[in-house]
Amino acid sequence: xxxxxxxxxxxxxxxxxxxxxxxxxxxxxxxxxxxxxxxxxxxxxxxxxxxxxxxxxxxxxxxxxxxxxxxxxxxxxxxxxxxxxxxxxxxxxxxxxxxxxxxxxxxxxxxxxxxxxxxxxxxxxxxxxxxxxxxxxxxxxxxxxxxxxxxxxxxxxxxxxxxxxxxxxxxxxxxxxxxxxxxxxxxxxxxxxxxxxxxxxxxxxxxxxxxxxxxxxxxxxxxxxxxxxxxxxxxxxxxxxxxxxxxxxxxxxxxxxxxxxxxxxxxxxxxxxxxxxxxxxxxxxxxxxxxxxxxxxxxxxxxxxxxxxxxxxxxxxxxxxxxxxxxxxxxxxxxxxxxx
Length: 340
Ligand code: GCU
Known about the structure:
Largest sheet: 7 strands, mixed
CATH superfamily of the largest domain: Bacterial extracellular solute-binding protein, family 7
Strand content: 15-25%
CATH topology of the largest domain: D-Maltodextrin-Binding Protein, domain 2
Number of domains: 2
Radius of gyration: 20 Å
Bound molecules: alpha-D-glucopyranuronic acid
């Protein structure tokens, strides 16, 4: 490790230690030998009825049980600990231990993560989840932020297929999006995606989308059915176009120092608990997607099919535009090979 990097890392660790010491709810317990408990804060931007909250709450309960109370997780939903771009810094500094962030947030720290947001990279949710949980496929991308940012990626959750929704009618072809202000996650690939469809991309935090739609600052957004329903976006953008333009990925991230502080036994319990968690999440995802569609329709939303070939064609240049390095190509090829 170069000296400058080591100093940066040491100071990050120091800041993290101070922050944890000052923070009564943090995981700053003493060593296990002292019988201390560690309560890890987990930041989430979803509601309590979202599959991520339900699965992560269960993760915390299981972890506490399996470590005899040495490790606990307290989930903070509804963006109460800020927005996802803030979670990266807070986890890096150790102010919070864990967070769920969308792939585009990680893309801003490390360009290989863009691969997880490209259209056509995943064939289905099952393909995606098998790939995200397979070390042979993801290689060392999950540990690639440890030296630079003190962040370890634990693993992935599906976001399902993302779709366009607007205030004024089904977008049957990309031409219907021409000039429309569409909210995107804050990342280059999402901006390029809306540009490729002819819309005007407006980067904005998730928690601001409802009021953005309501006030007319944006004309539409894109997301999965569960977010569309749980965030109540259907109330202010009632036309949901089944574009299914990509299958999105979320990631659980943890402060690397927190992870290092677990004994081998507790780390094994953490890893086993996580495996159970993402599997439960994937199951919940499928049933809740159907429920979200039914509830949004009952609330007045219209769902409409689109010319999928026209969307696929408009988005296909993104692959060449965003796969530019050897490591990105390797990751992309490994994910594709795992589909076959
Ligand atoms: C999905 C995803 C979130 C993300 C959100 C967004 O809901 O699960 O992690 O923040 O989309 O569009 O910002």
